[in-house]
Each structure stands twice: as structure tokens, then as C-alpha cells.
Amino acid sequence: MALLFAILLIIANIPIYAFAADNPDADDNTGVVLQYSLTFTGSGTQDDPFYGELNYISGKIEETTIETVNPLATINGGSNTYTVSLNYGWNDITFYVTSADGTKTSYYHVRWSRTKQPRTEHLKAGDLYTKPATDATAADGKIINLDAAETYEYTLNNANDWKTVSGVTEITGLAAGTYQIRYGESDSHQADSGSNYLHVYIGRTDQPFTTANETNFEIEMPKTVYAGERIDFRVKLDGEFFHPIMKISAKSKLFFSGSTTYVSVTFNSYVTDYETDDNGTRYAIGYFMLNGYNKNGANGTLTITGITLYDANYYKIEPADTLVAATTITPEHEDDTIVFENSTLYKEGSNVTISLEKREESGVESINSFDVCLDDGTVVASSKDGSAVALTVSGNLHIANIDATYLPADFTALEEQLARLDGVDLTLYTDDTRVAVERYYSYADQMYKLLAKDQALLDEYVLNLKNAIDNLIPKDGIFTGIEDNQALIPSDGSLYTEESWARLMQAASAAQTAVDENWNRLRQDEIDALASDLKTAIDALEYKPADYTAVDEAIANAEKLNPKDYKDFSAVKAAISAVDRTKNITQQAEVDAMAKAINDAVAALEKADNAASKSPNTGAGFMIPSVGAMIVSAAAIFTLGKRRKKAEN
């Protein structure tokens, strides 16, 4: 799974944040997300930045993108992402993150080691050869034929003391012995996992070998060679067709001074190549490596005793891509094949049958058709339905143009998890849990490319996606609207009607429940509705009516008087007429002033000159228009006042 995740950071179809200065998500979070989990040390200051190391990360990753946990934060004063190219070896990545609210800056130092890819090419036998040391104590042997463009590593066998060389065609200063050599670590690749063994012999110019050829072939090689040396040869191959060498037979004898005995010399022979000169003559190119002996006065002979050729032209048949199909090549006669350079060759003119077997483990459902082609692309046989084809070998062949149907992986579980994200606004969830979901979600398109053989990988991905979704944590709700309106609730509820105050208390209680229960961002619409209901209830508060008892008593006392008994009763009438029955409890002082005005007017009355001769007033003569009606209709007037209050509000 890690390899799949190391491929890239894919741009996902995920929500985009809009920044606003008063955005409730503009917090002081300066956390970051990398492609790989990393534990940081340090305090995050410029002098002590957050520090972490990522080692042994895939060499295929050429760049990485760092993202802030809160998408409103910035990296290096730019956006919330920072893309860095990765070199091989250690990369020091430094950056700083400024929080969305601008109150905090954190500094980071990430050391990222990008490992190199393994080598796919290896040294072959015969690619390199040696030159001997002059004696057992000298360190003047060589390994020759290196490619100056390559890097090599070598060590004396079993010493495990690898040395590196590059830009050279030979390694010098070698004592006699057996050496391991391999391709070394380059700018883009790791050192080869395997190595070849080469022998640096002891060269003895006092141990000459006289060469001889007892075969019917024309062989070019030195007439005299010496122990420990490489002996190059070239064999002329007569005939119109190319018949490769099957075997070279040779014998050697080494005679020592003063003795008629001899020892056999063990040597390795290689046919390294074939070439054709300007006249069209073919040659086999190769060499022998002769042992050296730390004995004086020896001499010997090296004789090529026989060369066996294959009796026809032979050709390779390259199999199909092994991830698609297993190739079976069945010759009509087993004698029509040879093994040359670790490959099976097929005799020219022989008949073979080629069949392909689908690789079910690679998710191949069927092989529908394929072609067999020569090196130049000429089609020599075709299978129109994927069945086996028979053909006559006429050159090097390869399987091409394979039409295969691939079994997809089972995406049912993946689709179930993706359906859980349909219509989901991930910005409503905490940054840490949102980022985890977005990371896995971003790989969904890549997952749909997986085949049945990758089902385990897909299942692991789906489980990780499911866990990320399950672990989503909604952000806290935003209660600013409720809190602002709570501040508007009057402190003295006794001033308001029981009905309107009860409605307000009900709205306030519902809003407070949301606060106490800490409703999350998924219920933000409900929170906002409660804030609106609270404001509506505040606006709908109705004051209680003012107390007109004193006014009514003052009017009643005035009505007991006979206006004719007084010089001027108009002030009393005016005070009573000025009574306004629409006042509420907050205007009680005005109502009390009305009562006082009536009482003051009564107290200021002066008796008429003839008042003493008249009978006491029963009130029947006190005719104040509509005073009685005003008293009777007080309730109606108060109701009207309430309606006006509502309208004004």
C-alpha cells in the first residue's frame, strides 16, 4: 500500500474553502500533512524548528507536496501547499507556516531521503576480464574492460570491503586473488544486488605456453601465451548460414624444469560475441583465462582439440509479457532445439506450436487474439481467437499485439464507502479528520484501475477509507448568533406580559440547550434557527399596561363635585380630558402625573359666591363628556395600545 501511496498526491474533487476575515475556522493551527506520517521534535520556533526525518522512501517520487492542516493557513507566505523537488539522497526541506488567524508562525525542517531504484541490468560473464599480477606479492594486477560511463564496486572475495570506481576503464593495483565486482551505486540506481567473480592470476613470463590448433577450423590466437593471462581467439565459421558454437574442447600441459611430469591447467573459456566482416564471413569471438603457478622453470602447451557447431541456423522466440500470459512453445521434434547463452533456440525450418495461457492471477479473463512476428514486425502467424498457432521457424520471433480481457477487481465495498461521502461537506469536520478522508479519497480514481489480482490491495485501501470516514469529527457549532441575542434579553421580566415573556423564556431555553449540549457544525442550521427564534421572541415582548387606579380615583373624586359650586371648573375638566389610557408600565410616571394633575386642579378650585346658599352637590350636575365611556373602555384602549406597540416594534 505504501508504494501505491508513494506514487503521487492526486488532486481530488473535494470542497474548497473560501477565506473571510471573520471565518470561524481561521484558527491558530499551524499543523501540516505530508505524504508519509512523521513524528516531529522541537518547539517550532525559528531557532528550534519542528524536525523530522523520512528515510528509505521510494525512488520513484520525484517531488512531494506539503499541505497545511487548516486550508486557510499559508506556507512561506503563499498558499496552503508547498511542492518540493526531491533529489537522490538526503533533501533538507525548510519552511514556515502562518496560521489562518495570523497569530502564530511555526517553522519546520524535514529531512527526506530519496532512495535510488534497484538495477535491472547485471554484469554478464565475459564482460570484464583480468590481467595477472607479476608474482604472489605484487599488487599490479588489473580488472579490464570497464565502461567509463558506469560506476563499479569491487572487493576481494569474502573481505566485504567494497571500493567504488567510476570514470575508468580498468581497476589497477590488484594482488592475485578472487574478486567480486558489480555495478555500483549511480546517480539514479542502487548498487547491483549480485556480483561476478573474477580471478587475478599470478602471471609468469617464465611459464610460456605454446598454442596449437588440432581442429579443422581456422583459429586466430597468439602463438605463445603465458600463465595467468587472458588469451583471445577468433574462430572462422564457414558456410552461408550461422551455426553457433556448441562447445570448444581444449587441453593444456604444464611441464616443470628437470621433470617429465606435467599438470593440467584449469581455465575458463568464453564465446563472447559473433561478428561478420566486410566479405560476409562470420567469426566467433572469445577468450581463455589461464591459471598461473608460483613455480619456476615451467613451460607448457595449450591445444584447441575440437570445436562443435550446431548443425543449422537457430533462432529465439521471445515469449509474451509474463504479466499477461504464460507462453508455451512446443517443437514438433525435441532435437530441433538447443540451449545457447541460457536461452532456448529453435532450428530454422522446424515446426513449433505456440499457445498462450491467461494469467488469472494478473486479472486476465481471456486471451482474445495475438500475433507472432519477425524482428521487422512482419506477422508470420495470427491467432484470431486466442487459441494456439502452428508455424515454421524462419527467423527470430516474438509474441505481439495481444488482445486480452482483464478481470476488474470487486469495487462493491469501495462504492459503498464513496456513497457515504456523496453530498457530504467535509469543511464541517475538524481539519485533522478531514485531511485523512481527503487523502484516501484522492486515490479513488486510481483504485478503479486495479485488477482482480490486486483485490487484497483494494480491500486494504477500502478499510483505510472506511476508518477515516468513521473517524470524522464534526467541528463545534458556531453560537455567535445565540450569544449575541442572549445579551439582548431584558433583565427584568416583570415589566412584560406573562404570555410574551413565556414565549421568550421558551426560545431562550431552547437556544441554551444547544449551547449546553455543544451542538456540532452538522446542526448549524438548527443553531441559526434557534438564534433567529430567540431574536423574534425578544422583538415580540409586550410591556404590561400602566396602573390607572390613582387616575380613576382622582376622576371619581372630581365627579362628586358640582361644577356650579365653583368659580371655574374648567381646569378639572381639562385635566380629566388629558388622561391617555394607552400608557404602559414603563410610562407609569406619566400616568401618575395625570392623576396628580386632576387632584391639583380639584385642590385649586374656588367656591362660587353663591355656593353657600345652594344644596350639596350629588354629582348629578358634573357633566364631563365621555369620562364614563373612557373608564368603561379602558380595557379596549389598552388592547389598542398593545397592538400599536407590536406594530411599532
From TrEMBL:
Name of the molecule in the record: Cadherin-like beta-sandwich-like domain-containing protein
Alphabetized Pfam families for the sequence: Cadherin-like
Annotated signal peptide: 1-20
All residue ranges annotated as the Cadherin-like beta-sandwich-like domain in the record: 75-114
Transmembrane segments: 622-641
Taxonomic superkingdom: Bacteria
UniProt source species: Candidatus Eubacterium faecale
Keywords, comma-separated and alphabetical: Membrane, Signal, Transmembrane, Transmembrane helix
